[in-house]
Amino acid sequence: MSDTIEKIKCLIIGSGPAGYTAAIYAARANMNPVLYQGMQPGGQLTTTNEVENFPGYVDGVTGPEMMVQLQEQAKRFGADIRDGWATKVDFSGDIHKVWINDSIELHCETVIISTGASAKYLGLPSEQHYLNMGGGVSACAVCDGFFYRNQEVVIVGAGDSACEEAHYLSKLCKKVTMLVRSEKFRASKIMEERVRKTENIEILMNHDTLEVVGDNQVVHAIKALNKTTGEVIEIPATGFFVAIGHKPNTDIFKDYITLDETGYIINTPGTSNTNVPGVFVAGDAADHVYRQAITAAGTGCMAALDAERYLASKE
Ligand SMILES: Cc1cc2nc3c(=O)[nH]c(=O)nc-3n(C[C@H](O)[C@H](O)[C@H](O)COP(=O)(O)OP(=O)(O)OC[C@H]3O[C@@H](n4cnc5c(N)ncnc54)[C@H](O)[C@@H]3O)c2cc1C
Fold first, then answer.
1. Per residue in 226-240, is it b (16+ CB within 10 Å) or e — as a string?
2. Is any ligand 1 atom within 6 A of the Cβ of residue 115?
3. Stretches in the chain below the pLDDT threshold 70
4. Ligand 1 pocket test, candidate residues 143, 165, 168, 294, most atoms within 8 A of CB
5. Candidate from 140, 253, 299 with most ligand 1 atoms within 8 A of CB, to mutate
6. How far is CA 196 from CA 151, 176, 177, in A?
7. What is the reported pLDDT for 50?
8. Which of 70, 24, 73, 66 shows the shortest CA–CA distance to 46?
9. Which of 81, 44, 45, 37 is nearest to 65 (CA)?
10. Which of 183, 194, 219, 279 has fewest C-beta within 10 Å?
11. Ligand 1 centroid to 137 CA: how many Å?
């Protein structure tokens, strides 16, 4: 553990749109924010080539470029951006303790958690190949559905989010094939009914995804196993959407912060407050509904303003 303890007024954990927006607001409010970037500097958007729905970018922008700009904007106002990740916290006292890389000990008056969430994937080598190529695999229909307008796509998943994303895609795509691994949906009846009633959604129950098929650059089809008959089918598709859930990056907070059953941080509605005074949350770490860069940025702003008001109330 560390020999020296650093005192920090406002610590921001995470460098996605939520963290950087919080840093911009906190720096401009003279809160001297220190931001630790974590293992994925720039967050989830650094894994995508095209962001077309963030307001202000008329011609779109690549994810990495946008995140560099957000970082530069935060630095311009004096935010202290650092490498390293939070490995342990102790939020039991008035001063919130955070350890970086298991060594540096920070004593913080306020903490903004903006550690995001990670989409779950099937883990097939072909899925990972096309995901990394940016050629037809996505975990976000709202982000990427537009690129598959009038095309045929496949979506895998059986929960409410999968049904919602399939329905969203059905408005853009010629045909959506939904692969459900078991004989039952996990989604609510109403969501299941909605996809069942949508003409251009074909549901294949009891099917496993075997392979994402393509020409090495882009996706052409999805190979699936009908577990009832043993037949292997190939479904023509240019896009493969994975909607099997997300994992919020919140494990280190679980002993102090109230989480829901899937690990999302529970905030007081309409605020960024967690159950611990002085600890705030922004972005996907608390959002299993919208999961967009603009909503993450919006809640980053809220967290910085809430932290600023908290500090003012203690003066
Ligand atoms: C492939 C892809 C494409 C997308 N496209 C779009 C799009 O076009 N438009 C759109 O609006 N949204 C898009 N999204 C969704 C968008 O990226 C997220 O909603 C947004 O990034 C969430 O921002 P965030 O700041 O909450 O967290 P994230 O972007 O997830 O960032 C989390 C940050 O926390 C850090 N971190 C995690 N744990 C720790 C720790 N212990 N200590 C320190 N740091 C830590 C990580 O290193 C990372 O920097 C896309 C997502 C993906 C995966």
1. eeeeeeeeebebbbb
2. yes
3. 1-3
4. 143
5. 140
6. 20, 12, 11
7. 85
8. 66
9. 45
10. 183
11. 17
